[in-house]
Each structure stands twice: as C-alpha cells, then as structure tokens.
From TrEMBL:
This is Histidine kinase. It comes from the Bacteria. The lineage of its organism: Bacteria, Pseudomonadati, Pseudomonadota, Alphaproteobacteria, Hyphomicrobiales. Residues 1-254 form the EAL domain.
Length: 254
C-alpha cells in the first residue's frame, strides 16, 4: 500500500539504498561520473522503484528527510571511493520538485558536503525541467544559491518540460540530460533523431555539456557518437549497481 506510515518506518529502519549508474564520455568510454539512484529494499515486497514512492514522499513532505539522507549517502560514497584511491568521479544526485522548492535544500547540500569532505565541484544536482519552469524567478535564485556552494547543476529529462530557450541561457547549469524517450527509438525514428540533434546543437551553442540517457543498444550508441553527443548513460553501458560493484568498475577504468 505504500502509505505514509510505511514510508516513515522505512526511513527509520533504513530500508533505503542507493545504486550507482555510470556516466561515460562517448569518445573514450571513460567513466566521468555516476548517478545515484534510490531503491527501497522492502522487507516483504523486495525492491521497490522510486517511481512508486517518490510521489507519496513528495506529497507528504517525507522527501525532505529522505532527500537529506540521499545527499549524505551519495557524498559519503563518492568521498569513500576517492579515499580508496579510485579515480574521482562526479556524483550526480536527483533532486525532486518539492525538495527543490524547500528552503532547507541549500543547508542539506552544505551539510552533506561538510560531513563527507567531498569537494563541492564533485557534486552535481539533477533538477527536472518541469521543477525549474514552475517558477523561473524563484528557481533561478535557488540555482544561483546552490552554485554559490560550488556544486554543479544539470537539467534532467531535458526536452520533456517546455523550457523556454530564452531563459535556458540564463540558468547556471552545466549539463543537459537528453530524456530517454527521445533516445529510445533512435535510429529508426527520424523525428527523435532530429530532436536529439537539436538538443545537442542547442547545448553546443549555449556551451553546455550534454548526455544522452537510456542508451540500450549499440545502434543508439553509434548514432549518438556520430551526432556529436559528448556523453551517454544507459543499460548498454551499465545498469544501476551497488556501491561495491561500481567500485570494481571504477577500478577497471583507469
Ligand atoms: O531508477 P529508476 O528508473 O527506478 O527511477 C525512477 C524515477 O525515480 C526517476 O525519475 C528517477 O529520477 C527518480 N529517482 C531515482 N532516484 C532518486 C532520488 O534519489 N531522488 C529523487 N528525487 N528521485 C529519484
Ligand atoms: O528521471 P531520471 O533520468 O533520473 O531516471 C533515471 C532512471 O532511468 C533510473 O532509475 C534508471 O533505472 C533508469 N534508466 C537508466 N538507464 C536506462 C536505460 O538504458 N533504459 C531504461 N529504460 N531506463 C534506464
Ligand atoms: Mn536523473
Ligand atoms: Na531523466
């Protein structure tokens, strides 16, 4: 049923875990970052996707303490990998719309950086296009404040949220993440190829980095590379995995 009580209990009983998915440079295959992805290890139902409980966590405000835990855990993990001598990677963390609107976000980010010792520039916050576009003025102020802490920002699910191109250039973001719905039917769908090419071109014009999400096939991989996309993420390259498996993958990457 995933009610509020169950969610509260899950936080208290530490039933949440983070998995990590590699982000690679298309040209070299080098892993430059990982995205932290939340999983609920339910004692009875097993692994529950965040898609099934983030909406409730947002409605009830539980996303705030949960989000703080995610930031702490992801930053601590990135710092722990570095301490083991693994190559430094960017740690990308999803921030939900509600979390982004809450006043405490900056403090939670600062606390996670301070307690982990992770350099701020190694943390990248993924904001959804729709969360930013809800109130562009407020969002810009929040983004500038977060940038002021030294962290980087990315726009997640880009292409799905009606960004006005004129405001996009004023946002202090460094990366666009091409939504996987556009990548899914490459190379068969000419419209999706055109949209993806347009986003790649837009990113280049605005001096933003760009990454294609949801890369599942060799054909998508090759086509994106040919189109000049800088980076990719998806099941073809690596599924979200536990921290230990990710550490092994990073160890093989230098
Ligand atoms: O990993 P998966 O495909 O199950 O994720 C489903 C959705 O949950 C995606 O939209 C993803 O962005 C979101 N999600 C995954 N991890 C987190 C997280 O740590 N915080 C937030 N706010 N959303 C997450
Ligand atoms: O909304 P966001 O982009 O943060 O969602 C990330 C989610 O996408 C993760 O939960 C992850 O499980 C999922 N994901 C990552 N790579 C792929 C992929 O290649 N195919 C599909 N279908 N989902 C993916
Ligand atoms: Mn994401
Ligand atoms: Na996305």
């Amino acid at each position: 049923l995933r009610n509020i009580e169950e969610l509260r209990q899950a936080i208290a009983q530490q039933q949440f875990q983070l998995e990590y998915q590699p982000l690679i440079e298309l040209e070299t295959g080098h892993i430059f970052g990982v995205e932290a992805l939340l999983r609920w290890m339910h004692p009875v139902r097993g692994r529950i996707s965040p898609a099934d409980f983030i909406p409730l966590a947002e409605e009830t405000g539980l996303i705030v303490p949960l989000g703080a835990w995610i930031l702490q855990t992801a930053c601590a993990q990135a710092a722990a990998w570095s301490a083991k001598g693994l190559p430094p990677v960017t740690m990308a963390v999803n921030v939900s719309a509600r979390q982004f609107r809450e006043k405490g976000l900056q403090a939670d980010v600062a606390a996670a950086l301070a307690s982990s010792g992770l350099p701020a520039e190694r943390l990248e916050l993924e904001l959804t296009e729709s969360a930013i576009m809800e109130d562009v003025g407020a969002a810009t102020a929040t983004m500038n404040a977060l940038r002021g802490l030294g962290v980087h920002l990315a726009i997640d699910d880009f292409g799905t949220g009606y960004s006005s191109l004129s405001v996009l250039k004023t946002f202090p973001v460094r990366r666009l993440k091409i939504d996987r719905s556009f990548v899914h039917d490459i190379p068969a769908d000419q419209d999706d190829i055109a949209i993806t090419a347009a986003i790649i071109s837009l990113a280049r014009t605005l001096h933003l980095e760009v990454i294609a999400e949801g890369v599942e096939t060799q054909a998508q991989f090759m086509m994106l590379k040919q189109m000049g996309c800088m980076a990719a993420q998806g099941f073809l390259i690596g599924r979200p995995m536990a921290a230990a498996a990710m550490a092994e993958r990073l160890a093989c990457d230098h």
